[in-house]
Amino acid sequence: MCLIVFDWRPQATAGARFTLAANRDEFLRRTAAPLQWWADAPDVLAGRDLVGGGTWLGMTRGGRFAALTNYRAPRDMRPDAPTRGTLVSRWLMGSSAATGTLPDSALGYLDEVARDGALYNGFNLIVGDWTRGELAWYCNRADRAPALLPEGTHGISNAVLDTPWPKLVHKRAELAQLTQPTQRASDGSDVPLERLIEMMRDPRVAPDADLPATGIPLERERALSAAFIETPDYGTRGTTALRVRVNGARLDVEALERSDDDGSHRLVRPGAFERHERYVIDTAR
């Protein structure tokens, strides 16, 4: 996952508490399963990396959420480093490689992850619990401890939280606009998730003068500056839109994924295969 923008309103007593739009960028040769309920963990809804076994973004019936992006540092890559996707799946499945159990809080989990953070190649990790109103972030290449995220509209690409790369700045601003109350339809409904998907599937590249310098060739830097990436060997493999709404004593969760894989691992570029899931979390329990 290489571009995530999200609007976080933990104090919301009605309407959207969490709205997210995210692109997963990956090598085309790397096989993955699309968004689905996991057979070996029935409460987990996520895609799955079939090489490393983890995932890039997912959620649970109980209200847990996690997402990950890689941190771009080509000179700092270790081929023997453990897979980063299991950092997401551990939180979703509620199990720790070290202890067998996890801390209850998102921040407690990230504190545990940070103790071994240096073992991994660079990553950003967001974990949360919608029922507790918690969302926390950690980057193992930042000089910052794990922290709870403040209310507002944020973005992560392949640098630390809210680093002003052009695609992040533009998509974060677009999401902020689309989540304004003035954007609601006459019946009070929110902007459809399909519109968030279309927002993210933007192939425009940034001007060379605005490109970050991350240690890769200019031509590659230019290609990766698009929100929706398309190169012969690497690109945006899927787009996810997600909304969590407060509705009395429940949370209504809706997720939409559009990807290049119909489940058979035969890729169609750019993909148009969609999966749509809705479920309810009872917060009165």
Keywords, separated by commas or semicolons:
5 helices; 285 residues; globular; Penicillin V Acylase, Chain A
Report on this model:
- 16% of the residues lie in helices and 34% in strands.
- It has 285 residues and is α+β, with helices and mostly antiparallel strands.
- It has a single domain, classed as Penicillin V Acylase, Chain A.
- A 7-stranded antiparallel sheet has the order 3-4-5-6-7-8-9, covered by helices on one side.
- A hairpin with a 2-residue loop joins strand 11 and strand 12 (250-259).
- The chain is globular, with a radius of gyration of 18 Å.
- The mean pLDDT is 93.
Mean pLDDT metric: 93
Stretches where pLDDT falls below 50 for ≥5 residues? none
- Under CATH, the homologous superfamily reads Penicillin V Acylase, Chain A
The CATH architecture: 4-Layer Sandwich
CATH topology: Penicillin V Acylase, Chain A
Strands, count: 13
Radius of gyration equals 18 Å
Give the neighbour order of strands across the main sheet.
3-4-5-6-7-8-9
β-strand percent reads 25-35%
Question: Which CATH class?
Answer: Alpha Beta
Cα separation of the termini: 33 Å
Write the layout of secondary structure elements.
Elements: E1 3-8, E2 15-27, E3 32-37, E4 44-49, E5 57-60, E6 64-70, H1 86-93, H2 106-115, E7 123-129, E8 134-139, E9 147-148, E10 152-156, H3 166-178, H4 193-200, H5 218-224, E11 234-247, E12 250-259, E13 273-282
Antiparallel strand pairs: 1-2, 1-10, 2-11, 3-4, 4-5, 5-6, 6-7, 7-8, 8-9, 11-12, 12-13
